[in-house]
Specification:
Length: 187
């Protein structure tokens, strides 16, 4: 197999076991709003999705099928899972809507950066993005806040929601700084 190419998205790069695991998580993400009426089922589905998030990367490394496409798919499926899940929990009055602003601070900044990133992508100037420590901490805190919300532990989930917002802001600042640094090197 040829090494993964930066900036190239190919279906063939995810037509493997790791890609199938990611696709399974996408299925959970899509059906999650239909499971929220049964909190035990919703929690089980969410925890299965989290296990699959760890598993797909591990399997990709073990089978030497890591790819830029797989990393992009993994990140987007995670976003779909958490946004669909948060929206479903808001609709079912399990959490206030304003929590979503803190839960998705990183994503909001990334959306703001999207036009510049797309312009760079079209010109072939694409960095293979990796998470930073703040990004990993944000993901763990979000998982904990999400789980506590499903368990009805809203006071603890609210504390973690603020922590997610703080860690997400730090991660977003780092991603933005890295993107601006990359763009300045292109000039």
């Amino acid at each position: 197999m040829s090494p993964p190419q930066r900036g190239v998205l190919r279906f063939s790069d995810i037509a493997n076991l790791a890609g199938a695991i990611t696709a399974g998580r996408l299925l959970i993400a899509v059906i999650f709003p239909f499971l929220i009426h049964d909190l035990t089922l919703a929690l089980a589905a969410y925890l299965l999705a989290i296990v699959s998030d760890v598993a797909d990367g591990t399997v990709a490394r073990w089978t030497h099928t890591e790819s830029h496409t797989g990393a992009v798919a993994d990140g987007w499926v995670d976003k779909i899972l958490h946004i669909n899940g948060a929206w479903a929990m808001v609709v079912h009055d399990l959490m206030p809507a304003w929590w979503m602003w803190l839960w998705f601070t990183r994503e909001i900044v990334q959306w703001i950066m999207l036009p510049a990133l797309l312009a760079d992508f079209r010109q072939g100037h694409v960095r293979t993005y990796t998470t930073n420590l703040a990004g990993r901490v944000t993901a763990v805190l979000l998982c904990a806040a999400f789980t506590l919300t499903l368990l009805g532990q809203t006071a603890a989930a609210e504390v973690l929601t603020w922590a997610v917002g703080i860690a997400g802001s730090a991660a977003a600042a780092r991603y933005l700084s890295r993107a601006l640094d990359d763009r300045s090197k292109l000039r």
